[in-house]
Amino acid sequence: MGRFLLRRLLTAIPTLLLIATLAFLILHLAPGGPFDSGHVLLPQIQHAIEARYHLDEPLWRQYLRYLADLAHGDLGPSYVYRGTSVNDIIARGLPVDLAVGGTAMLAALLAGSAIGLWAALNRGSWRDRVPMTLAVLGISLPTFVTAPLLVLVFALQLHWLPAGDWVAGSWRHLLLPALALALPYTAFVARLVRASALDTLASPWIRAARARGLGTWRVLLHHALRPTMLPVVSFLGPALAGVLTGSIVVEHVFGLPGIGRYFVGAALNRDYTLVMGLTLLYGTLVVLFNLLVDLCYAWLDPRVRVAA
Amino acid sequence: MRGRARAGHVLAVAALCSIAACSGGGPPGNATAARVGTRPAAVQELTRGIDAGGVRSLDPSLATDIPAFRVLDDLFEGLTRLDVSGEPAPGVAERWEQSADGLTWTFHLRAAQWSNGEPVRASEFVQAWRRTLDPRTASDISQILAPLANAQAIAEGRADPATLGAEALDERTLRVRLDRPTPYLLALLGMSFMAPQYQPAIAQWGERWTEPAHLVCNGAFTLSESVLGGRITLLRNPRYWNAASVHLTRVTYIPADRSVQTDRYFAGEMQFTDSFSAEQVRWLRERLGSQVVTGPYLGNFVIGLNVERPPFAGNLALRRALTLAVDRNELVRYVRQGLYEPAWTPVPPIKGYPTPVPDWARLPDEERHALARRYYAEAGYSPQHPLRVAFHYPTDSDNRRTYEAVAAMWRQNLGAEVGTYNEEFRVQLGERHLHQLPMFHYAWIGDFPDPYTFLQLFRTGFGYNDGGYSNPRYDALLDAASATADPGLRYRMLADAERILDEDVASIPLYYYSSRHLIKPWVRGWQPNLQDRNLSQYMLLLEHEGR
């Protein structure tokens, strides 16, 4: 197990290096630079600013400089948020996304699994069709529709919850964004669990368990649940990386100070270091969660353990 | 089975319809039903919206974004400050005098204090300005300080910051020398980047000196909380020299998109929005009436023409035909919902400046169109041989609507085929600066209320003269205007210069911007003004019922 983990973590390094290199090249190929703006700026002053950030150096030297800083854990200064480092931006924004994304995914996992299992156990009845129709709706309705609708109902009509803003530790400010983010994932998980549970429930070992006279709940929890969760776990890996690095729409609608907004804004502003930092963060999370998924697989499915 | 399935679908559709019904109903009407008293409210806490981009930096030397300027107006005060109507008024300086040639100004400072109780010294202004201009600070606003003697040479790294034309004669007297008469100096000195900076905090904390725990300021409020990309909370500064007349105890700035600000306004969580969506103006006016506030704003929306390249190089008749064929009143009324003012000249209306509105602007539409067609034919174009040209603009839905409408006017009134292409802002900016585009969008927000900030864009060789316009007569008038200390004469010279821009059709102005806000009826102490700067220190909340 230890060797497996070590091997996987070591292979992550060239992967991340490749991501960093590609991102660096693509960014610098894009026309315009971080200090091209609509302001009146004399060329001499613009050159002085670029020199201050080493942007006047050859690209290979900038690249090596970036890697050297990266090796020390320094993601560099933001070119747009002057006086703020990329490390700082991520450190301040990530907790917001972790809170909202973590709550949303936990809710989606619990509610989606329960709904999916319930639907599978009642296959063909209205208890199956109603939740599955709602799940299709949940998947089809984009967050930019559901989030404003939630604001409209719960903030503007009922005045139960705030329409936006973020106050650390306040569940009232957490609830609506987490709900908006959780809805499509709940729907996805419910459909995945239902389909997987139907396969599992039809398998020979479940039939054998039933033939031995075990009750429905015992069969479900002790024999069917683990294999049923396999596709959900595969789905959750990359989904978690996406959700925990912030949702642009949810942050936008609720005015959350997370890092999701920077994914687009930093690219448009040519804030090279911020884009690089976010790309590497996202890449690292994808690698880590995929590793976690593989470990979960081994725990959930004895066959994977045997193969390993 | 089929019946059960249908029941499931019916339930789902019913749920969706109920949500849709909520959205069709609009927000509750209680936002308009508030009763406002005449006495100050017991709680003086205001929440204001700022642009969704949020504050990028609170360092007065580095901040360039409008949200930061809004907050810095409350945190710092320069030699002057804006009064409630947007005019410069005494700030840290209680009085001043200028030399006969307008090149030397002496400012006498009042006994003002920093938020930590230290006195504000004249030398701290000098140090702050030197810091902004020092190339090591890498400030991209240093160009605006150019009127100060030697400022430009310092910013370019050709002179030592110590040679700046600003000198502290004693703790409370500051002498400022200028390279040229600058009638807008008092307005300039009221901008946040001209405020003093507390040097010990900068020396001790470096880039982190703007964090709430470290920031020492001299404005009406102090910084209590600053979340990057999120809320910024200010508290009344008891050491501000005029603290006795500041009513608000707490001001919270929240960055949010226009539509989100509107939502939060209706929810009662925001009392002063930074803007609202132009498309919603009619709907908002129906529900909110006088809470919808608009006013002129120091910015223009213009089509640039590249006069160095075909088809516009040496073809005045074509340029004239295009500008005459644009129906600006219709554009403003139908495409921009009547929020903006039609523009026939690049400089927005500025107090005291005699805007040289061209005669053709007063022609009836049909007569103007006929004249446009005559110029179009004179330029060598006809229905059989129409003008075909590409027009580039930065991606934005407002831009798209405007330019599709203008292209349609040219097609209808002239038969010209103008293809509109949207591009990412920085891509368009790069192509513009390289003079590669025949026609392009540009919009300019003035740095200070003076025509020069708009007219400099057409000066020969100026970095942002993206159309390559050049006229020695025009340049000479700008030079002469810059040299005179007589403000009236200067305005007349600038107006003459602007008239030349119209004669040469150096660009096609479309409209002037306006500011727009939603303001609760119990918020007092603000006025629409050209720079759209409303300092929280003047605001007061009245007793009220409702959200």
Give a verbal description of the structure.
The complex is a heterodimer of chains A (308) and B (547). By secondary structure, chain A is mainly α. Chain A is 77% helix and 0% strand. Chain A contains 13 helices and no strands. Chain B contains 16 helices and 19 strands. By secondary structure, chain B is an alpha+beta fold. The radius of gyration of chain B is 26 Å and the shape is globular. Mean pLDDT of chain B is 89; it is low at 1-31. In chain B, 46% of the residues are buried. Helices cover 31% and strands 21% of the residues of chain B. The chains are: A mainly alpha (308), B alpha+beta (547). At the A-B interface, helix 2, helix 4, helix 5, helix 6 and helix 10 of A face helix 1, helix 7 and helix 13 of B.
- Which strand order does the major sheet of chain B show? 13-17-12-16-14-15
Strand runs of chain B, count:
19
Count of strand segments of chain A: 0
* Strand proportion of chain B: 15-25%
Radius of gyration of chain A, whole Å = 24 Å
Tell me which protein chains meet in the greatest interface and how many residues each side has: A-B, 64 and 70 residues
pLDDT below 50 for ≥5 consecutive residues: which ranges of chain B? 1-31
Derived from helix and strand composition plus strand pairing, the structural class of chain A reads mainly alpha
Distance between the termini of chain A: 9 Å
Strand content of chain A: under 5%
SS class of chain B: alpha+beta
Following the backbone from N to C, one meets helices and strands of chain A in this order, namely HHHHHHHHHHHHH
Largest sheet of chain B: 6 strands, mixed
Question: For the terminal residues of chain B, how far apart are their CA atoms?
Answer: 51 Å
Averaged pLDDT of chain B, please? 89
Helix content of chain A: over 70%
Q: Stretches of chain A where pLDDT falls below 50 for ≥5 residues?
A: none
Write down the overall geometry of chain A: flat
The percentage helix of chain B is 25-40%
Q: pLDDT average of chain A, as an integer?
A: 87
Radius of gyration of chain B: 26 Å
